[in-house]
């Protein structure tokens, strides 16, 4: 079975110089990984401990980081996904889903390279709809990263920038659910359930 890959033609990193293009690509990676049922189960059951959601965001940043090189193939992505699942969540994936996620990431890169963001937009819209219906129990927490949380390395890894850069896109961010609200003492405040209208 052949392995999909992307390679720089001028020996420069695969990251996009165009900020909008790069932001959409990173959003695409985020949505593909957030839709990975094995990871969703691990996060919802906190198999990675209390920081399971933060570890998922870190996993996204680790896949994004692969594209700072001049060459990446689906096997590289799959290896990183499976290693992190094993190391951080103590989950061994043997159903081939890691390879499918990796192929999806390569496909999204190729689409973004052509300026085609239809798949990314669809995945993001579907995620918003699932969240509004309450089907997504653990919300994306890249927009409201808590800098006072010493255990979370999301901001250092660049994951919160996914939402910051999306402000320049055509995507309506007003319906994006807010993450947990933390008071001055570090306690999470209980929020009303249901989507905002």
Automatic annotation (TrEMBL):
A GO biological-process term: rRNA processing
One Pfam entry name: WGG
Domain of life: Eukaryota
Acidic residues composition-biased segments: 148-158, 165-175
InterPro entries, per database record: Pre-rRNA_process_TSR2
Region spans: Disordered: 144-197
Record flagged with keyword Electron transport: no
Record keywords: rRNA processing
Family to which this protein belongs: Belongs to the TSR2 family.
Protein name: Pre-rRNA-processing protein TSR2
Species of provenance: Nadsonia fulvescens var. elongata DSM 6958
Taxonomic lineage from the root: Eukaryota, Fungi, Dikarya, Ascomycota, Saccharomycotina
